[in-house]
Design goal:
This protein has 195 residues and is mainly alpha-helical. It contains seven helices and no strands. Helix 2 runs parallel beside helix 5 and helix 5 packs antiparallel against helix 6.
Length: 195
């Protein structure tokens, strides 16, 4: 059983490498979309979705493998699992709230960007979806007590930073001074209390 899981684990390394390359392709595709069409294309949205969903599947698989392979003292394993669930919820709840702010699927994925959202959770972060989903992923890494999952999460953060910078440049072009003012008052990542 352990040998089979280890072989599958290596497949996850290969898939993770592919997903990182796909993430770079997504950034390049969306950057091209923004330059040529001034908005996201359906292909860009699909590639972006595949990148995130594949990452999530690999992360969950790695956590599942590590949870069953790494034999920790039971009380320590249970404690990590509970802490992971708490961190996961700290990420998932704001993620759901941020999606509700968009009020439509097209707006949530960037196909309909005709209005700048600056209220609710978007008054505390310019990127609450990315921030909260990153927190949720760390929760899964803690639940699975997986070092590789933590490394995956760090790479996810690294690859999302240039993505966010590209998005911000696009939004400055679309919304102009309104977005620049929003940037002055709202942090890129997160602020717990309002000014």
């Amino acid at each position: 059983m352990v040998l089979m899981v280890c072989q599958l684990y290596w497949i996850s390394y290969i898939l993770f490498t592919f997903d990182l390359i796909l993430g770079i392709v997504v950034i390049l595709k969306l950057s091209k979309d923004y330059q040529e069409q001034k908005k996201r294309s359906r292909t860009g949205v699909i590639l972006n979705t595949v990148f995130y969903e594949l990452f999530i599947c690999i992360l969950y698989f790695v956590c599942w493998c590590d949870f069953w392979i790494i034999n920790l003292i039971p009380i320590f394993s249970i404690a990590l699992f509970i802490i992971g669930i708490i961190v996961l919820l700290i990420g998932v709840i704001p993620f759901v709230i941020s999606l509700k702010e968009f009020k439509s699927f097209k707006r949530a994925v960037g196909l309909d960007a005709n209005e700048l959202i600056t209220t609710g959770i978007y008054s505390r972060s310019r990127n609450p979806q990315i921030v909260s989903w990153g927190i949720a992923q760390f929760g899964f890494a803690i639940m699975g007590h997986s070092v590789f999952a933590f490394i995956m999460c760090i790479f996810w953060i690294i690859i999302n930073h240039p993505y966010l910078l590209m998005e911000e440049k696009h939004l400055k072009n679309v919304f102009g001074e309104k977005y620049r003012e929003y940037c002055k008052n709202t942090p890129r990542y997160f602020r717990i209390k309002k000014k």
